Amino acid sequence: MANNRRHKRKLKAEINVVPYIDVMLVLLIIFMVTAPLMNLGVDIELPESNAKTLSVDSEPVQVSIDAKGNLYLTLGKAEREAIDEETLVRKISAYVAQNPKVPVLIGGDQSIEYGKVFEVMVLLQQAGVPKVGLMSRPLEQKAK
Questions:
Q1: What is the mean pLDDT of the chain?
Q2: Structural domains in the chain, sorted by start
Q3: Which residue in 81, 111, 119, 137 has its CB near the most CB atoms, within 10 A?
């Protein structure tokens, strides 16, 4: 019996990393497949090159940005009012909750940076607006 105790297997003090590598590779494949499916941008529908006037059933919500980057809000037939970003999100989310199909348009001064318009789109997305339109002036026809 004493002989059996001497030949008992010794414990290994190593970690078997093969299962951890397998799990890591499976996770890597999952992330590689799902990463392209994640959409982190703002969904907008840009007008085509020869844009036409939109026909809408109700008065649109208009968010205007002047050359200095100040925001203005026009809700339906109400007068245009100067507004800050927090109040914009609060007012538009309440208005869109009551009128879910109301069109929301952004009009930016030609001299402002695109980044400012993008920031306003993000604010509108936070307010729960499903679609945003961009306002523009029609091109003047050149004399022939």
A1: 78
A2: 2-37 (no CATH), 61-134 (3.30.420.270)
A3: 119
